[in-house]
Hints:
The complex is a heterodimer of chains A (193) and B (630).
Chain A: H1 2-23, E1 29-30, H2 35-50, H3 53-57, E2 65-75, H4 82-95, H5 98-105, E3 107-111, H6 113-121, H7 130-133, E4 140-153, E5 156-169, E6 175-188
Chain B: H1 2-7, H2 13-34, H3 45-49, H4 53-63, H5 72-86, H6 90-104, E1 106-107, H7 114-119, H8 131-147, H9 151-160, E2 165-167, H10 180-193, H11 202-205, E3 208-210, H12 215-227, H13 231-244, H14 249-257, E4 262-268, E5 273-277, E6 283-287, E7 297-303, H15 307-311, E8 316-322, E9 326-327, H16 328-333, H17 341-348, H18 351-367, H19 371-391, E10 404-410, E11 418-423, E12 431-433, E13 446-451, H20 463-467, H21 507-515, H22 524-533, H23 567-573, H24 585-597
Helix pairs in contact in B: 2-18, 2-19, 4-5, 5-6, 5-8, 6-8, 8-9, 9-12, 10-17, 12-13, 13-14, 18-19, 22-24
Amino acid sequence: MNRFRCTCVALFAICLPWTVACAASPEWRSTRLTPDDLLEISDTFAARLAESDLMAQRSPDSEPWLVSIQKVTNLTRDVMTESERWLIMQHLRASMPIDALRRQRNIAFVLSAEGSALLRRQGLEDEWEAPALADRRVTHTMTATFRSVIRQTPQGAAETYLCEFELFRLGDREPVWIDAVVIRRQASGHIWD
Amino acid sequence: MIVRACNSLGPAPIADFRRRGVALLASVLLLLLGGCQTGMRHAPADLMRQGEYGKVRAQLGRQLTENRRDRSWMIDRMRLAVLAMADGRPDQAQVLFEEVEEILRTQGINRDRTVAAMITWEGVRFWKGEPFEQALALFYYALQQGSLEQWDNVRAASGSSLFRLRDFGYDPRSGRRHDAVSIARHAVELEQRTAPDEDGDFFNTGYAVVDSNFIPGYILHGVASRLLNRPEEAADYFAAAASLDSRLEPLLREFRDTDYNTVLVVSYGLGPAKARYGPDEAFTWFVPRTSSDDAPLVVRFTAADDWAVAMDDSPRVQQAVVPRVMDINRMASDHKWNNWEDVRRAKSALGNVMLTAGAATTLIGAQHRSNEAVFIGLGLMAAGIISRAGAQADTRYADVFPQRFYMIPLQVTGPLDTIELQVDGQPGSRMVLRGLSPPEDEQGVQLRYVRLNQPIRGQVPPSWAVSGRINYRNEVAPMIPEPGPAAGDDLARPFVIGGVDVRPPGGTQLRELHASGRLSHTPLGTFQSAFYEERLIVEPSDAPLHPAEPHVLEGGRMHTSPLAGTAGFARLFGQVHAPYQPRSGAMRGLMSQWRAAEPHAPQEHAGPIASRDDRLDPGSARSPRTNSSP
C-alpha cells in the first residue's frame, strides 16, 4: 500500500505540469475583420441603399443610371486580398434586388471590367447583367473605403473600423449617396505573445 | 513522508543489492533522458549564401507540417515565404503570408502558458517568434504585396510591422541597458520583495511602452502613403525614419519628393543565429552570422530610354551610394525586440532543486533498504530532470532573414536597363539585373525585392549573378541572348521538348510554331494537355497552392516565371540548365513530332541560342499580376 501511494506521488510529480498545460486551453483573439464581418457590411449597405432617399426619388421614368462598382480601397491595418475586396462588392450587388431596381428605379449595377475579369479567372462569372447592359454607358461609380484606428495597451488592443460607401456621378464626381458603418473589435493579450 | 520512508527496513542483503542496482540504473537513464530534446531543422546556410533559394525551398517544402499545434508550423511557413520572396515568387508566397499574418495578428496566444512551457516545449507553446522576427515577417508581407502593386496592403502590412515595444530601460547597477540576465535578476528580486496580493511580475510592470524603431517599416509605409495620395501621412513616416537615423535624410528626401517608378528593397547576409548561454543554458542571445558594418550599397544603373537608344549603344549611366537602413544584428540584440520567453522560463524552472532532493532521497532510501524512498526519490528526479530539460532555452528561430536592408528609388525605362548592385567592399555580393520593365500603369510604382549573395569561399559571385543575360524565352521579360549560331524558329520550341521557351503554353506560342511549320498538326488543346499530363503547373493562379515547387528549369514542375528584377529571375535565366527529360507519353509524343519534322538530324539545345535579330522579343508579355487566393 505504501509503495502504491509513493508511486502515485511520484507519478503526480511528473504529470502535474502536463495537467496545467492541458488546463490552459488556447483562446485566440484578433482585432482583424472576419469574413463574416465583411459579408455583414455588404448586407448592411445593400439594405441601406435600397431604402435610401436616393432610391425613393427615382422611378421607372428616371434617367437611366449604370453604376460601375469598384473594389474596396483598404486603409486599415488588415491585409485584404484582391479577391476579398472584390467579393465584398460582388456580395453587395448580390444582396440588392437587382431586377426590382432596374424595373422600378431604372438603375443597374455592374462590376468594373477589372473585377469581372478577376472573378471570371476564379470561376465566379458576373453572369447577370453583362449581355443586357453591353450597349449602355457607365454613368456612376460606386467605391468603398475601409479605414481603421487602433488603440493598444499593455493588456490588449481596440480597433475601430470605418467602412464608407460612396456613389458618385462620373462627369463631375459629385457624390449622390454616402453612407458609413462603424465596427469595433477588441482583443486581449500582448500582440507579441 | 520521506522521513517515515527512511525509517522502514528492507528484508535481505540480495534484495538490498538489487535495489541499489535498480536505483543507480534508473538514475543514469533519467539523466540521459534529460539530454534528449528535439532539434531544429535549419535551412542550409551555404545554399542561401549562394542564392540557391530554389533548392532550399524544395527542402523546406518537404518538411512543411500541416499540424497547427506543431511548433514548426509557423516557423516553416515564415521561412518558406521569405525564401519565395528572395526567389522572386510573391505568387507562391501568398497563402503562406496569409497564414503567418493570421497568427501574428492574434494576440495573447501564449498567455499564461509559461508554466506549461517549462516542462515541455514541443507542441505546448505556440511559436510566434521574437518581436523582431514578427516585425520582419510583416515587413516581408508588405514586400510581397508591393511586388503585386497592392499599395494599400503594403500600407497595412508595414503599419502592422510597427507595433509598439516594451523597453525595460537601464540596469541601475551597471548603468547599461538591461540584458536577459539583469532582467531575470530584477524579476526575481521584485517577486521576493512583493506581497502576495500585489503584482510582482516585473515583466508586466517594469517596462515602458515605446514606439518601434523599425526603420524599413516606416519608409515603406511612407512610400505607400505617398502613392495612396496621402502626402501628409507619408511625410510623418519619413520624418519618423529620419529621426531614428539622420544619415538617411537624403535618401528619404528622394523617396518623398522625386519621381520614381520602382522601389528596390535589397538585403544582404544572414541574420543572427539564436544560441543558448548561462546556467543550464537557460538564456538565449542572437549571435551574428554576417558581421555588422556600415558599408553602403553601390548602385550602378544603365538606363535604356527606349529600344532605339539601346540599339545605338548610348545608355545613360548613373551611380549612387545608398546607406544601410537596418541592421538586423543590432535589432536582435536590443532587448526591446525580445519576448523574454527564455527569461520567464529560467525564472520558473526549479530543476536543480528537485534534482538534488530526488538524488538524496534515492540514495538514502537505498542505504536504508527502503523501496518507498527509492520510488519517491526517482519520481522527484524524473520531475526535476524534465523540468531542467524544459529550462534549457528553445533556440528555434527564423534562420532565413538577412542581416541588413537597403532601399532605393529608381526610374526604370525598359527591360534593357541594367541594374548593378554590390555591397561596398564585398565583390561576391555583386548582382546584375536585366529584364525589368516599367509598371504597366505609367503613374504606377512597382516594388522588387533583391537578395544579394554572400559567397563563403572567396569573393567571387556566382556566374549567373553577374551574367546579365536572359537565356530562356519567358512571359515576363525579353530574351537577351549572347552572340551565337542563329536558331531561327527554335526560339519558340518549348524547353520541355528540347528548346529554350519556358512560357506557359498558349495560343501565341503555338501560332509561332505553326507559322514556322512546326507542330502544324497539333491543335491548342493537344498542345496544352501535354503540359497538364506532364503535371506541369502552367496557370499563374495555381502558384499559391504550390509554395515550394521549383521551376521546371531546376527540375521542378513550376512553368510560370518569377518576377524580373529579382535574384530568383537572375539565377533561373542567367545560366544554362540541363535539358529536360519528358516523363509522360503525351510530352514524349510532342517531342517525337518535333523531331520528325526536322529537316536534318535532331540537335538538342545545349545553351543559349539566338541571333542578335532575336534580342527584341515581341512575344514576351509583361509581369503577371495576381493577388488571388484560391
